[in-house]
Amino acid sequence: MEDVKTRDVDKFALFKKIQQNKALLFGKFSNTVTRGAKDAKWEEIRLELVAEGHPYFEDKTAKQIKDNLWALSKSRTIAKVDQAKKTGSDGVPKFSDVCINVFYCSY
Fold first, then answer.
1. Which of 30, 46, 51, 52 has the greatest number of C-beta atoms within 10 Å?
2. How many structural domains is the chain composed of?
3. Integer Cα distance of 78 and 106 in angstroms
4. What is the CA radius of gyration of the chain?
5. C-alpha dihedral over 45, 58, 60, 104, to 10 degrees?
6. What DSSP string runs through 51-90?
7. b/e code 58-90 from CB counts within 10 Å (16+ = b)
8. CB-CB contact of 50 with 58 (8 Å)
9. How many whole angstroms separate alpha carbon 82 and alpha carbon 18?
């Protein structure tokens, strides 16, 4: 059980960094916002997280973080929000801090 809480702390730290760098990571391509700049920022975020003591990211690549962890968390959060919006659903579920952070990064 402790491992799950630790992973949530790691994910929360990642999503905070994504939110801080949202303009570059998800912005339209331009002279300053390039594929290389985006990839470099993902790697910089990964290295910062490892330096801050989040061991979950040590054996992950920036591509894995972006394409797997972030994409999966985003799609799951959007599905929860969509389910909560449906008429006749069981009401609004209690969203975790991680879900809330992903939501704010996504929109």
1. 46
2. 1
3. 9
4. 15
5. -40
6. HTT-GGGTT--HHHIIIIIIHHHHHHHHHHHHHHHSTTSS
7. eebebeebbeebbeebbeebeebbeeeeeeeee
8. yes
9. 22
Give the integer Cα–Cα distance in Å for 107 and 36. Answer: 23
> Residue 106 carries which side chain, given as an amino acid letter?
S
How far CA 66 is from CA of 14, 55, 85, in Å, comes to: 10, 17, 27
Nearest to 74 by CA among 105, 46, 43: 105
Domain range for 100: 2-106
Q: Under a CB-based contact definition with an 8 Å cutoff, are residues 73 and 19 in contact? A: no
